[in-house]
Automatic annotation (TrEMBL):
Keyword Transferase: yes
Keyword annotations from UniProtKB, A to Z: Transferase
Organism: Streptococcus macacae NCTC 11558
Full protein name: Beta-1,6-galactofuranosyltransferase family protein
Domain Glucosyltransferase 3-like N-terminal: from-to ranges: 10-164
Coiled-coil segments on the chain, per record: none
Top-rank lineage group of the source organism: Bacteria
Ranges for domain Glucosyltransferase 3-like C-terminal: 191-348
Pfam families: Gtf3_C, Gtf3_N
Keyword Transferase listed: yes
Length: 349
């Protein structure tokens, strides 16, 4: 039988932040394919007093949850697991000894987030990353990575290439979509920026060029009363697509508008930003950083453009003909249809 680990978060979080949307969509896609859930819920305040013993506590919970699985079963795990424990690789070893195949779908790899800035990592932190990331990946039968750039890095880290396959882009389900138009899309509309708008995550927002116009959606924005920026508010992830209005969706990160840099910006070299999936699922073509992993996907599928700096945007927009824009729009609609149907994950299973 096919199973998947379904973890529940039992503490309060901002539901208008899309932090759990990708995981929830994966769960929904797996359920539609008749995968059976193995539910694990650990309330954070029950394990905080345990300190280091919390890792053993979580290990025992996972071991018990997986105990009904039998030889020949398949188990898909979304990674990183929500309830971190340095002993999770031991759980996977025991499962594989029983003849159970373990599939890992990567959402984030902290070791790659810090890939170009190891100065912020203590020896203790690097050891924890090894225990929580690489040991788990080495004990998986198959690993679904974001893209070929991430795949290449993991091969350098001695992960067996035969285990690895590229998702290409994350799916983004829109449950309330019944056909027809989703977002309001036209070439002469502002560019859309959605997501976490706080300065520590998206510092570039506070250094945007004076042209073109931008529509912002999300939480954490410190309104600077800038003439070419219009803040549109925050919405639940399943509702946000219907509120978007713009010409392109921008995928950018870090403190600078001139290039993607810093911990979050550099991570785009390996990471498939989930907001790209939001935009494309909504029918918006995308603008991505030219050095990002997604740049190849966007070029191949004719669903957007890439720039090396946000200060190129005004000229790029002026040079783009309506005919060329329509080609990108049709490419975005085609990819968006597949994203809304969950096809990128389905073709991996």
């Amino acid at each position: 039988m096919n199973y998947y680990l379904k973890e529940s978060i039992l503490y309060t979080y901002n539901q208008k932040n899309a932090g759990n949307k990708a995981r929830d969509d994966v769960n929904a896609i797996l359920a539609s394919l008749h995968y059976s859930p193995i539910s694990v819920s650990i309330k954070e305040d029950t394990i905080e007093p345990l300190g280091k013993r919390a890792h053993f506590y979580k290990y025992r919970i996972f071991k018990k949850a997986f105990s009904p699985l039998k030889s020949g079963d398949n188990l898909l795990i979304q990674f990183p697991i929500i309830n971190h424990t340095i002993f999770f690789s031991r759980v996977l070893k025991q499962l594989r000894k029983k003849g159970i195949k373990v599939f890992v779908l990567i959402h984030d790899l902290e070791s790659l987030r810090f890939a170009n800035d190891k100065r912020h990592l203590s020896l203790k932190h690097r050891l924890r990353l090894w225990l929580q990331e690489m040991t788990v990946l080495k004990n998986a039968d198959r690993i679904i990575v974001h893209n070929d750039k991430m795949k290449a890095v993991l091969i350098q880290k001695k992960i067996d290439a035969q285990k690895l396959s590229s998702l290409d882009i994350f799916d983004y389900l829109i449950p309330k979509y019944k056909g027809g138009k989703i977002a309001t899309v036209a070439k002469d509309l502002p560019l859309v920026i959605a997501g976490n708008l706080a300065a520590e995550k998206s510092g570039f927002l506070y250094h945007l060029p004076k042209t073109p116009q931008f529509n912002l959606y999300g939480v954490g924005y410190d309104d600077q009363n800038t003439a070419n920026i219009s803040y549109k508010g925050s919405f639940f992830p399943d509702e946000l697509p219907f509120h978007l209005s713009g010409s392109f969706g921008l995928v950018w990160d870090g403190p600078s508008a001139d290039t993607c840099t810093g911990m979050f910006g550099d991570y785009l070299r390996f990471n498939n930003s989930h907001k790209a999936s939001l935009y494309l699922a909504s029918g918006l073509p995308v603008i991505v950083w030219s050095e990002s992993a997604l740049a190849d996907f966007v070029k191949k599928n004719h669903c957007g453009i890439s720039v090396s700096s946000l200060f190129e945007l005004d000229e790029k927009m002026r040079q783009l003909s309506e005919k060329d824009y329509q080609v990108l729009l049709q490419g975005a609609k085609k990819i968006g249809q597949s994203i809304r149907a969950g096809l990128f994950l389905k073709k991996q299973l």
